[in-house]
Amino acid sequence: MKFTFYGHACFAIETGGKKLLFDPFITGNELAKDIDINKIEADYILVSHGHGDHVGDLIAIANNTGATVVAAYEVVGWAQQNGVKNVHPMNFGSAHFEFGKLHFLPAWHSSAMPGGEYGGNPGGFLVHAEEHKFYYSGDTCLMMDMQLVPRYAKLDFAILPVGGNFTMDADDAVIAADFIQCDKIIGVHFDTFGYIKIDHNAAKEKFKAAGKELILPMIGETIIL
Ligand code: NI
Ligand code: MN
User: Fold this and answer.
1) Are 136 and 123 contacting, i.e. CB atoms less than 8 angstroms apart?
2) Rounded mean pLDDT of 49-77?
3) Where are the domains of the chain?
4) CATH of the domain spanning 2-224
5) Span from the CA of 195 to the centroid of ligand 1 (angstroms)
């Protein structure tokens, strides 16, 4: 399974011949200025919530690629109003897709669209693909609901925010990794803005001390998992 990082909380995962793109926010991210959104391919775009740092390039990439946008009903409605044709609205629960079963699970955060429209509830995704099972929490603080994740799936890896301030920091993400019973964590939502700048080595050491691995990908980097 291929994981490619596009900065902030935007990443692509290729599995079962399908390309899944998460939380597209690239052109608004100074750190990701070398990424050309016109070169990004996607069959599905999964959106955790409506904040600008998660939907900034959603409309452009959805229209470029013809990908199906999977998100909360309200986020999907906003995408449709902005011209996106292929959509699959969800609320918390699960559904089946070509790439496998997908759980849309709660996150403790907020969700409004960039223009202030209601964005529904913020969430995270648990993907049950054939090759691997993985969890992306979306923007959230540490929460007890994460303990449900291992009842649904034995995870191969998880993507968690580690930047603090708006979400979990590395300390909380270590506990989250425990809750979801996963030892391989890819950190996202760090360094983009002043509020979420982190010490990479210190964050990795916290995971190491707990017998876990934290990967902090470089923007543009592809990791084989
Ligand atoms: Ni947010
Ligand atoms: Mn965010």
Assistant:
1) no
2) 98
3) 2-224
4) 3.60.15.10
5) 13
